Amino acid sequence: SKLTNLGHLEMTWRSRVRFHPLLVRILHKSRLRYYGKPEKKMDMPYQAYFEVADGSGMMSMVLWNSLCPEWYHSMKVGTVLLLDKYTIKTSYPFKTHPTPGDSQMKRFATIEISLNVRDPPTEISIIPEEMVKPEWGLPEVKYRFITRSELDDLPNNHSCDVIGLVTFVGRAERARKREHSEDFWLYRWAHAIDGTSDQPFILELFATSQPDVFEHIHPMTYLVCTQMRVIQDLTENPSRTVYLTTSNESQIFITGWHKGQPYTKDAKVKNFIQWMKSQSEADQIKKTVIGGYYPFPRPPDSFLEY
Prior knowledge:
This is RADX protein. InterPro entries: NA-bd_OB-fold, RADX. It comes from Oriolus oriolus (Eurasian golden oriole). It is a single chain. It contains six helices and 15 strands. It is globular and about 65 Å long. The protein folds into two domains: 6-136, CATH 2.40.50.140; 148-290, CATH 2.40.50.140. It is mainly beta. The relative contact order is 0.13. A hairpin with a 2-residue loop joins strand 3 and strand 4 (57-64). It has helices at 6-12, 67-71, 148-151, 211-214, 267-277, 281-286; strands spanning 22-29, 33-34, 46-54, 57-64, 80-84, 87-90, 107-115, 123-127, 159-169, 173-176, 184-193, 201-206, 222-231, 243-253, 289-290. Helix content is 12%, strand content 34%.
């Protein structure tokens, strides 16, 4: 009965210690971050960011430590949460921000919601979608799907979502996070087609916090990647190649994981499914490739150009 909203929190948070419960929908979800250090003795040094929204706007929410293994996988994009006994802190200034699907949505960037296992222990409840009432005024999850024919005209670093049929997937490769560092990023290259162009989407897929999906990307699977960033080669190279890379908030889905996801209602997703129904599976299988070394961006044809 006594609920507050994000807009009211931003105006009153300095003058309060105890806040009324919040009812919000998750619009974006970051990868899980491990911040453990050998000299610091912490049981579960994990952290994950979410962007949550209600009728008044959108705000960051941070899940801390042992709440991460308990809640991270249950908190999906589109999930509705009832939160109580949370704390409010000023925002961490250096975190990444996803591009909202709804550009009109107000963003409360000065503060963030903090969910902790103690001081005080946050109470989290997931509201099943069938119990969510329209009068709560929670926003729907919106996407920014593009087709392959639209990609070449998009600027560098533009944020978008894509769907396609996987025609190539490379082996998993590693890159050092920093020079001389012992930490590595794990990534693989993939190609996906959507029928709007002769060219595929070239996707640089870093391992997100979804190992069960990352390891099972195969040719002929329907692949959805959200919050991808456009990488345009900005040199004068006439044969420039545009590709997409994952961001901190990217989510990846393959056949078997699509059911119930909010993007299934999107018009461009429905168009892709219609196109796939008109294709011969046998013809597409002949064009697929798996594994091997994939040098990208490709070096020039001659040593002189190089």
